[in-house]
From TrEMBL:
Xref: PANTHER family: FERRIC ENTEROBACTIN TRANSPORT PROTEIN FEPE, TYROSINE-PROTEIN KINASE
Main location: membrane
Domain AAA: start-end pairs: 593-726
Limits of the Tyrosine-protein kinase G-rich domain: 449-527
Source organism: Maribacter stanieri
Record lineage: Bacteria, Pseudomonadati, Bacteroidota, Flavobacteriia, Flavobacteriales
Keywords, sorted A to Z: ATP-binding, Cell inner membrane, Cell membrane, Coiled coil, Kinase, Membrane, Nucleotide-binding, Transferase, Transmembrane, Transmembrane helix, Tyrosine-protein kinase
Name of this protein: non-specific protein-tyrosine kinase
Length: 772
């Protein structure tokens, strides 16, 4: 059973033990109905007023569908990405990381010029103006660090101009006005304004619905804004683990600005992705072009080798030449046969002509010479005419004589032509035989040439295929250049969910109603309680599970500090016992820093801190007591010392580190090991100061210098300052004063333990009346 469960069971048993009268309780509430009505009116009024001052944040969301790149096919039909079952989810996570990057958010804020915050002057509570609420837009070129200390007041002077008044945080106190030395100027819309704090333009907003004429401009650090948006406001998650849909959600007080931020985020994300792909495509084109140039030279060399080989070997195509050689071999054989036949015919004609008295006609078939054919035809015709005349005329007829003379002359001509034709045919036959022998030789060399040409052609083919492949890839890469193809689809553009307003007005009012009912109930029960104050240790143990480290007897002497010679007094023994109990309870780790607090003023925090410091210092430990109760600083006075000029507030508020630890320490007389540090003479905001770096430095110095550090803090129920000291302390002493502290105040220490607001919380019961 946990401590809280034990505490609840004890409280439950106590309630059950009492005579619980539900009817009487309701009757008691009804009698006080006016109190409930008044409380309800007050709390609802406060809630309505508070809602006017509380800024409501809305959820602005957009939904994107990331395209599945595992199904992308290039122009040749090849899958561009391996089908990896984990690649899609990994890609979605990668894209989410890109979308949530501070660099991308900074680009969005810079594009929208959101480092400029516009508000209306003298309006409370302050409300940021944006978009259509402004009659102009600002386009920021450059912002310098001085801008963060600069406030501009912009006043509309007409339809085309405006004026600017500048003020600076570091302006001299005796300056006659809040404007700086840079002056008051009037500008036209679109004019480029160059100032020591930045360069920007103000252009007219045609979509403005604002009727205001004065506006306040403050510059903000865009890097800090980007970090805040990414870490605190932006949320991106996967809608469904089985899909590539992501939801972008932004918490923003101004819906229009939130929608612009998300839409710009998606737009710039797509643009950056496009530019990356475009750059990659351009690099691919450049690489392919270089490779094509090299390959073109190599291909030209190979083609020249092929041409040279074919020229040297008189080849057009191996297969064609082989077929051509076979056809020509047949053709040459046919021509050779024809020529030989013609030669035989010519020899036969010659023999026929040389025979005396042979008057038979000559055969001109298979003769290729036109002249010879003509002579033979003429000869045959005359011979026929002669034979016809021989039947009718005598041999001495002049006509017969003339025919015989012509035949004789033709015979001579034919014999001469035969000699020439025969010589020509012999030459042709020899030529045909020589050409036939050459083709036969080439035909035998064709397999060898075919193999050599195949090797050269194979290299040519490989380079041609590679060249064509690179040309195709170059076209694909060239098509990618300038072609904007987003890797996502916007399912829903940025839209504001007005029902998601935070804090919820309905919930806020409901809480107010509950508080309005709870307060009267609590007051009624508080008034009716018979015993409202702690009287002894049992009351503390009954109401809280926090250990009681010790009791301090009532101080009858009236002295605030245990002096020398009083070590054996009951009061001194009480503090010595608490010192031993502290070491025993925290035996595993020494409690170096001890925080002393209580619920309200007057519980004895300062009295306990002073005397506990004396008790610890008496054991030769070096002790320092820190006064951090800014509303009731009584430590130095209780110790009987004089306040120093500097205290904690002076140290924390200094700008140039001129005040050191030794300037703060107050030595307690008669206690060489005991020192104190007063609150100081300056005011401070406890929450801010206690979280500051100087506070951290101070505590680190004290831990190095002293064995124990006791912090006399403010009451914890009234201020939150004490909670800010939790990170410096090792244990918390919660003061409870007998017959003074109320039971309800013990709930604070129980809450401290339950919620672990302080390390090692313990109760000290003060001002106990002893019976002896």
């Amino acid at each position: 059973m946990t401590e809280k469960e034990y505490f609840d069971s004890q409280m439950s048993s106590n309630h059950n033990a009492e005579n619980f009268d539900l009817k009487g309780l309701l009757s008691k509430y009804l009698k006080s109905w006016k109190f409930f009505v008044i409380s309800l009116i007050i709390f609802l009024s406060l809630a309505l007023v508070a809602l006017q001052f509380i800024s409501t944040s809305y959820n602005v969301s957009s939904k994107l569908l990331l395209k599945n790149e595992t199904t992308n096919i290039d122009a040749s039909g090849n899958n561009l990405v391996n089908n990896n079952p984990f690649s899609n989810s990994e890609r979605v996570n990668n894209e989410i990381e890109v979308l949530t990057s501070v660099h991308l958010m900074r680009s969005v804020l810079d594009t929208l010029s959101l480092q400029c915050k516009f508000t209306a002057p003298d309006v409370f509570p302050e409300k940021e103006l944006y978009g259509s609420e402004l009659p102009f837009k600002i386009v920021v070129d450059t912002i310098y660090p001085l801008a963060y200390e600069t406030t501009l007041k912009i006043k509309i002077e007409g339809d085309e101009s405006f004026s600017i008044t500048e003020s600076f945080e570091d302006a001299l106190e005796d300056a006659s006005s809040t404007s700086s030395d840079y002056g008051y100027n009037r500008y036209n819309y679109g004019y480029k304004i160059e100032k020591p704090y930045g360069v920007f333009e103000i252009v007219k907003n045609d979509k403005s619905i604002s009727k205001d004429t004065e506006f306040v401009l403050d510059f903000r650090d865009i890097d800090e804004m980007a970090h805040d948006y990414v870490k605190k406001a932006l949320s991106i998650y996967v809608v469904n683990k089985d899909a590539s849909v992501i939801n972008i959600v932004l918490k923003e007080k101004t819906p229009e600005k939130g929608e612009d931020i998300i839409n710009s985020l998606v737009e710039i994300y797509g643009l950056k992705s496009f530019l990356e792909k475009n750059t990659l495509a351009l690099n691919n084109v450049k690489f392919i072009d270089n490779r094509l140039n090299t390959l073109s030279k190599e291909l030209s060399e190979v083609e020249m080798n092929v041409a040279q080989f074919k020229t040297e070997n008189e080849l057009a195509s191996v297969e064609f030449d082989a077929n051509s050689f076979a056809e020509q071999e047949i053709d040459y054989g046919r021509k050779l046969t024809e020529s030989e036949i013609e030669l035989k015919v010519l020899n036969a004609i010659e023999r026929n002509l040389r025979k005396g008295g042979n008057e038979s006609t000559l055969n001109s078939l298979s003769i290729s010479s036109p002249n010879l054919i003509y002579l033979i035809d003429s000869y045959n015709k005359l011979l026929i005419d002669k034979k016809s005349l021989q039947r009718t005329v005598p041999e001495n007829n002049p006509r017969m004589i003339d025919i015989r003379d012509q035949l004789e002359q033709l015979r001579g001509n034919i014999l001469g032509s035969l000699s020439t034709s025969k010589q020509s045919l012999r030459i042709t036959i020899n030529s045909i035989k020589n050409r036939s022998d050459q083709f036969a030789e080439k035909k035998q060399r064709i397999p060898s040439m075919q193999r050599q040409l195949l090797e050269i052609s194979r290299e040519q083919g490989i380079k041609e295929n590679l060249f064509l492949y690179l040309l195709q890839k170059r076209e694909e890469a060239a098509l990618m250049v300038g072609a904007k193809q987003d890797n996502f689809t916007v399912i829903d553009s940025a839209i504001t969910d007005y029902e998601s307003g935070s804090p919820s007005k309905k919930l806020f009012l409901l809480i107010s109603v509950l508080m309005a009912l709870a307060v009267p109930v609590g007051i009624i029960h508080l008034k009716d309680s018979l015993n409202t104050k702690v009287t002894d240790k049992k009351d503390v143990e009954k109401k809280t599970s926090v250990s009681v480290i010790g009791e301090i007897a009532h101080n009858k002497s009236g002295k605030n500090l245990i002096e020398k010679g009083e070590e054996k007094s009951l009061l001194a023994q009480n503090f010595r016992m608490m010192r031993m109990n502290l070491d025993f309870i925290l035996s595993e780790k020494k409690a170096q820093t001890i925080l002393v607090t209580s619920a309200i003023k007057g519980e004895g925090k300062t009295f306990f801190s002073s005397n506990m410091g004396v008790a610890l210092a008496s054991s030769s430990s070096k002790v320092v007591i820190l006064e951090l109760d800014k509303h009731n600083p009584e430590l130095i006075e209780t110790l009987g010392e004089t306040k120093k000029e500097y205290g904690v507030t002076n140290y924390l508020n200094q700008n140039y580190n001129t005040i050191v630890l030794q300037d703060l320490l107050v030595s307690v007389k008669n206690n060489p090991n005991l020192f104190a540090i007063g609150l100081g003479s300056e005011s401070m905001d406890g929450l801010e100061s206690f979280h500051s770096k100087k506070m951290v430095d101070l505590m680190e110095q004290l831990k190095e210098e002293f064995d124990y550090i006791i912090i006399d803090s403010a009451p914890i129920s009234k201020l939150a300052d004490t909670l800010a000291l939790s990170k410096y302390t090792d244990c918390c002493m919660y003061m409870v004063r007998a017959n003074h502290t109320k039971f309800n105040d013990l709930e604070i220490i129980e809450d401290i333990k339950t919620n672990r607001k302080f390390k090692n919380p313990m109760v000290v019961l003060n001002d106990v009346i002893t019976k002896y």
